Structures are given as C-alpha cells and as structure tokens.
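Subgroup meeting minutes
Present: P.N., E.W., G.H.
Scribe: E.W.

1. P.N. recapped why we're keeping a running log of single-chain structure predictions: easier to compare across weeks, and new members can see raw inputs and outputs side by side.
2. G.H. added today's entry (126 aa).
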Amino acid sequence: MPEPSLYERVGGMPFFEALVDRFYDGVAEDDILLPLYPERDDLLGARRRLALFLVQYWGGPTTYLSERGHPRLRARHSPYVIAALQRDRWLLHMRAAIDASGVGDRERDELHAYMTMAADAMLNAG
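Output recorded in log:
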C-alpha cells in the first residue's frame, strides 16, 4: 500500500485552512509583508488561494489547478519585490504557523523544508 500523503497524515483541508489562517494573521500585522498584497484590507482571497495551493501540493484535491491553472509561483510573484527581508518575514510567519499547528515532527520538518525552498525560489531582488 502506498504511504499516505502529507495531506492525509495531517487531517486534510482543515489543517491547511488553520495553518494559512495563522500565517495570514501574522501577515496582517506585518508592515514589511502587508504592502505586497494588493487586497491588503481583505486577505480572504489570498488565504483561500494559498490553502488550495498547499492542499494540492501535499496530495489533496486539485481545486487550485481547476480554478487558477498551473501554479507558476515565480511568475505569479514576479510583480512584487521580494528580497531577503521579505522572504525572511514570510518564513517567520509561516514557520510560526507550522510550529503552532501541533503537527508531528516528521510533518513539521517536511513543511519547514518545503516552505524554505519555496521562499528562496521567490527571491527576485537583491
């Protein structure tokens, strides 16, 4: 039998919705990151898109693909200046959200590793 996906191991959509909510609660109070969001007064759309992306990436339903097409993360983020400061602030909030999730060590480590790799890949400014 194949091993369950991380999506299954953490409890599915509710886990990712809660993770993303904790993350965006931090972003909403961050003077460095919040200006990067065009709809900064209402982060609901951003929350939904990130949750759907993470769900799909980690083995859940492909709703993100159906609604938005291929993720093309670098292209979608290219209009925004993302330097080390923005990356580090993003990771600070994402790591805090992961750590507060109560997920097991294995899943926490997998999530941390992916988020670090993804954040590094979004860098587009010195």
